[in-house]
Amino acid sequence: MVHPIQEANENSPYGDLTREEFYKKHQILHQENFILNKQDLKIFTQSWRPAGTAASRLRGLVAIVHGFNCESSWLFELTAVAIAKAGFVVCALDLQGHGYSDGLPGHVPSIRPVVEDCIWVFDSARAEHPKLPAFLFGESLGGAIAILVCLKQRREWSGLIVSGAMCGVSTKVKPVWPLEELLPVAAFFAPTWKIVITKPPASKSYKEEWKRKLAGKSPNRPKCGKPTAATALEFLRVCENIKRNCQGLETPLLVVHGGEDRVCDPNSAKLVYETAASRLIFMKVIITIALP
């Protein structure tokens, strides 16, 4: 099956089609909704499923979690469509401060309410399909969140897939010294200050120039992709939390990571792979070789 990214161009994930034409071509039913979370924030949710005869032969449910400064629409929804075309119900949400959800753009001072939002949305989706096996897929920050969800719901998921998971932050995007040591102070006195790092993570997230341009043209893309001081500190804490507790990960696990990832550290993902208690566990490191 060809991934729908093959139809995209630098201006639109749907290529030369409208969004409605794109879904019709791929025979996908799509729904959008807003929910109000415990903090009275509106959280955007959406789902995809196959239309036509494939709708009566569903293979499972896949809950997907996007990365930092991304969203469940635009580029990420192409993966949702690919999974739905394979016969799965797919559900997603925009994390707080991302996409169409409420919250200060790109500001994640605490991961706990974000994880709670995911569990609430995904539990609701699973309740609608109690007989289907349920899988969790996360990319980058979403991979870290997916791991945290599975650590809280240890035996409730049939499988966990993480791609480029943020189990550790690359030194190439960490705050410059001595700022990293001063992060707790900066996060306390100026939590929303945009931290000084080499470049916004998005600048290193896409190897192909046209994909970087496409990602930047999302109507929900924040103008400044740099994390706030409180966000940067929380991300480092999340990575340490995962390293300390990944031995409690019992869900069948597939780890996929780019060997040249310059944002999320591949060696930290390897540590999760080597330490997790899952009986079924696989890791695929992708190395890109430049041809002369």
Automatic annotation (TrEMBL):
UniProt-recorded name of the protein: Serine aminopeptidase S33 domain-containing protein
PANTHER family on file: PHOSPHOLIPASE-RELATED
Gene3D superfamilies in alphabetical order: alpha/beta hydrolase
Alphabetized InterPro entries for the sequence: AB_hydrolase_1, AB_hydrolase_fold, Hydrolase_4, MAG_DAG_Lipase
Organism lineage: Eukaryota, Viridiplantae, Streptophyta, Embryophyta, Tracheophyta
GO MF annotation list: hydrolase activity
Annotated Pfam families: Hydrolase_4
Serine aminopeptidase S33 domain location: 58-284
Organism: Rhododendron griersonianum
